[in-house]
Amino acid sequence: MSETLLVDKIARRPAWWAGLGSYIRHRPFFILALLVTLAFLAIALLGTAVTPFDPTFQDMEAPMSPPSSTHWLGTDSYGQDLLSRAMAGARYAFLTGICSVLLGALGGLAVGLMAGLAGGRTEWFLMRIVDAILALPSLVMAIAFIAILGQGVDKVILAVGLALIGPFARTVRADVLQVRALPFVEAAGLMGIGKLAIVRRHILPNVFFPLVVQATIRISEAILVSSSLSFIGIGIVPPTPDWGLMIAEGRGFVSFAPWMSGVPGAALAILLIALAIVGDGIREQMDPKQRAGH
Amino acid sequence: MSLQMSSSAVQATSRPLVELEDFSLWRQNRSVLDGLSFTLPKGQNLALVGESGAGKSTIGLALMGLLQSQGVKMAGRARFDGQDLVSLNARAWNGLRGRRLGMIFQDAGAALDPCFTIGHHLAFPLRRLLGLSSRQATERALALLESVGINDAKARLKAYPHELSGGMQQRVMIGIALACEPDLLIADEPTSALDVTIQAQIVRLIQDRVRMQGASCIFVLHDLALASQACERIVVLYAGQVMEAGLAEVVLGRSRHPYTQALKSCVIELDTAALEPPPGAAPSLDRMPSGCRFAPRCPRASERCTAEKPPLQGTEAHQIACWHPG
Amino acid sequence: MLLFVGRKLAQTIFILLMVSIVSFTLLKLAPGDPVQMALGSEYSQEAYASLTHEMGLDQSLVVQYGHWLWGFITGDWGRSYVGRTPIFQYAFVEALPVTLTLAASALFLAILIGVPLGVLSAARQDTILDAGTAALSLTGTAFPSFYLGILLIWIFGVHFGLFPTMGFVAPWQDFLDGVYHMTLPALTLSTYFMAMIVRLVRANLIEALQQPYVAAARARGESERRVIWLHGMRNVLMPLVTVLGLQLGALLQGAVLTETVFSLPGVGQMITNAVLNREYLVVQAGVMMTGCLFIFVNLLVDLAYPWLDPRLKPR
Asked: Where is the ABC transmembrane type-1 domain (chain A) (predicted)?
């Protein structure tokens, strides 16, 4: 409801910043979360150009030092600067998150399209496999793939991406079925237009947009799963500055150096919360029926 | 309080059961009801008639105290058996509802909780409010269901609402609402969700049961003919204002308000053209005319009508709010 | 009714078969030669051939799958290379109860706190309390549970020294000590579910309270408390149970992480160690157990539907 009002307001007022102002007033948390996410993204892109230290530089003079003027957020047990490592970790979080979601979305698109278009036995069979995969939580699925693939950044991306194919396939198939039942698509089929042309002209565009929305929302899940893999010690290997790994390293020192897990933990938590708020906002925008609850 | 009420029978008979005086209601600062006045003597039935959106159902809900929590403001006086309803607190409302006030809803199918059996629905008034034992309650429940015309009552007690037909559901609702023998029953369009063939049956059933228990009923209806059959008194509403009120046969037979006349012609000639709003001037709750709310659609409207609200004038038997009564 | 149960059971068995095929495929995809791994570095050609035959690896994949599935059903899950113990004993008898205890206590805690909070939030819609609960539940669903666990260890274990920070004591052996050891892990794992239950109960209860049957209940003279808890919550039960069933995967996934944080010898630890030791049979057992558990619980949810919503009762 507030959305239509908002559109009215923007349409009525000529100055764009007035609309923006009301937008910010309407959804301050969404804007804040978006800014936080963009800040993390910027740090991830800039990488070592903005970190105060080299994230793998070991300051032997100051291992496990608490936050100080040289090491703003302290150092870990190897004397590595935590602020620099947390900032560098953003890159790995986004790298694994975005790449694995892309992989999962593409795989899901392929499987979902196949299932939705094939119909009959092929569809039934594919969807039962997806059902079986969905019975396994994405982390367990990813662990199983890691067991086969081995460890490392690329393996984590692959494992998480494969684990995400199931959920993506399911939503794609649902969308395909919906689009396929639309009158103009049925008509195109009756008119004898080739199947490939229908897929390209009608089905893909209609499936693509919801898929992009889904993908944006699932990035946080991918980041969580990949950092979880690193946390339990089977994902990314040291000395890569990955948040999950850093939290695991700090776990044993929590009684006397809580900042060691605290810095990467806070970074991960803040990013995930910001992404959740952004995801909620996007979902609301896409689906006005799901009103602003919380 | 209740002692006082039952002790003086003379006073009780002379006192009307429901009395509204200049009663207004705002929902989110929009005027929904504007200066309503009408009375309902004990033992009589009253019909609130008008198009949808006239505020008929709102009156019913307000008299049940079901609007209080929804950002609603009230002014004026509304009395039930001498008791002021506008200032009543939540606890006192709970004492009235079910025991002295009963309500029947538009869509009985939606007004029965899908997760509970008919027997469970009946158990609340019988066991909690009347304090019957489970055996007595079952007996009373069976008698109640039979009295509202439900066959095989024993099996129906164990049935879930969705297992009954629409007419049955409404009969059950009537049974539940009358379980504690309330003094006033509010029937909010009790037939609009039903087949035309059983509408009259249900209204007659309500009428019979209410008379049998010596109670009164306020019907919310949009069917004038049905209203005149079931009720002694009729109040015609338009956009939250009373247009015409009085005895059923007078209001219907000698109606003088252009709106009532238009409503009648709708019924008789199926001529809806008379009620069609002039283009671009549909009455909305946002921009109510300051005078008579029917003025924008009225064939007899003058400048005075839009500027000044006509007062409700006349006798108990026939009241009318119009500057140009016909 | 019988037909309904029968159909659900058939569906379940089919999906279980699918899960077993996925698990079996995973095992076959695993790198390395199991015979070689079993024999160690030095072995003769004959020993290799005889073990290959003994393990049935010279037969067709379908036959191998059949053998494996039969073994799985009858409790013959193979032996672990490391301890040479039967995996069934290790995974099913020892590790699974730990994980189930953790998951059940977390769920219990989440419902115990989440449901009243959600109800309160719905009843006091758009108040400061509601907004506060909203913020907390959003944070709760997004917060990484393993970091939350470490925070709890730091605050309650280290700083206040109130609770033990590691180890498992079976509550069926020493109930109080078991609960004591389970407090922090259960709290860690429950946060996500608590937050989710709050959101779910709030949204569904608000919707339920707008239904005509709620107005009708009020009109019958039922008290506000009765209206909310009886008519409101009874109708919220169905979506709540459905989502809880579907979120069981997240619960098991969270349990894996929580076990790592608090060093609990459950399925999660088992799988993690197995991955590090390249014990594919153990990984597979873990995957199978997780999948079966998920499917089993959702079968229960499906079977509970007619009771949760009488309109779904099969004729």
From this structure: 90-279
